[in-house]
Amino acid sequence: MPEGNFVLKQRFIHMMPADKVLWEKWLALYSQGWERYEYDVRIGEGITVSEEYPDWGKDLARLLTQKRIDVIAYRQGIPWIFEVKPQAGLGAYGQLLAYRELYRRHFNYAGPLELAIITDLLNPDERFIYEKAGIHVFLV
Predict the structure, then answer these.
(1) Are 7 and 69 in contact (CB under 8 A)?
(2) Phi and psi dihedrals of 71, rounded to 5?
(3) Distance (Å, rounded) from C-alpha 139 to C-alpha 87?
(4) End-to-end alpha carbon distance in the chain
(5) pLDDT tens digit string along 81-128?
(6) How far apart are CA 114 and CA 112, in angstroms?
(7) Which of residues 55 and 122 earns the better pLDDT score?
(8) Percentage of the chain with pLDDT > 90?
């Protein structure tokens, strides 16, 4: 029998071990009221390689270079884009801003959209920047 909650962990197997720990903590604290979760959501176009490559090579190049959102969760029908990152800094801030724009373009979506960072450490200046931009901060 697998250790821990095997079914829960299988839903986000793409996450690095430290990311999984943060996500599991977040789920334990905040999972009420969410309608569903989507993991490892690919957005953007990725790269296009030369026509001389076989179809499988072209597909692989695109898939490997598309951006991937850690988690999209829905609350009252509104998508929330989550970046899960230990010791998050401004790199994760930039990722979230980029994901918002790519999500809107990729899904032709103009409705409400929330951004959130889940982390274990964020210095006060960075927290100020996140919150100033309307990004929800979850310290777990």
Answers:
(1) no
(2) -145, 135
(3) 10
(4) 29
(5) 999 999 999 999 999 999 999 999 999 999 999 999 999 999 999 999
(6) 7
(7) 122
(8) 69
User: Whole-angstrom Cα distance, residue 42 to residue 46?
Assistant: 9
pLDDT score at 2? 38
| CA separation for the pair 85, 8 (Å, rounded) | 19
What dihedral angle (degrees, nearest 10) is formed by the CA atoms of 119, 23, 112, 124? -10
Cα–Cα distance, 140 to 138 (Å, whole number): 6
Supply φ then ψ for residue 119, to 5 degrees: -150, 175
pTM of the model: 0.86
Sign of CA dihedral 126, 132, 135, 139: positive
Q: What is the assigned CATH class of domain 6-139?
A: alpha beta
What distances in angstroms separate CA 98 from CA 70, 72, 130, one per listed residue? 13, 14, 14
Q: Does the pLDDT of residue 70 top 60, yes or no?
A: yes
Six-digit token string for 119: 């982390």
Q: In what order do the strands lie in the sheet with 136-139?
A: 36-43, 67-75, 78-84, 114-119, 136-139
